[in-house]
Amino acid sequence: MKESFTLDQIRRFSLAVVVIGLIISISGAVRTGSIILSLGASAFVLARHSQVKVKRNIELILPIMICIMLFVLALSLPNAR
Predict the structure, then answer these.
(1) pLDDT for residue 42
(2) How far is Cα 35 from Cα 38, in angstroms, rounded to an integer?
(3) What parts of the sequence cross the membrane (predicted)?
């Protein structure tokens, strides 16, 4: 049976997704890049929050809300290429 991913692997993958989202955004596809960036950043925040010993809700809620706002903003762009 296949083992599940470790939190370090999830963090590395989400950082790679964030970098890919930045490259896509810079190259001209702003909407797609922003959506990929917000999904990668939220996965990174969730993985990091589960690794921290002292958990405070603001350290999870604030970054997730920023990612949600970026996602909504990307969807509402009028003429994104």
Answers:
(1) 93
(2) 5
(3) 13-46, 58-77
pLDDT digits (tens, 9 = 90+) for 44-65: 888 888 887 888 888 889 999 9
Q: Is the pLDDT of residue 30 over 70?
A: yes
pLDDT for res 28: 81
DSSP secondary structure letter of residue 6: P
Amino acid at 22: L
- Output the six-digit token pair for 43: 């996965």
Report whether 63 contacts 41 (CB < 8 A). yes
CA distances (Å), 44 to each of 2, 24, 30, 31, in order? 23, 19, 21, 20
Q: Put residue 28 in one of left, alpha, beta given phi > 0 → left and psi -120 to 50 → alpha.
A: left
Torsion of CA 58, 19, 12, 66, to 10 degrees: 10
Question: What does pTM read for this prediction?
Answer: 0.80
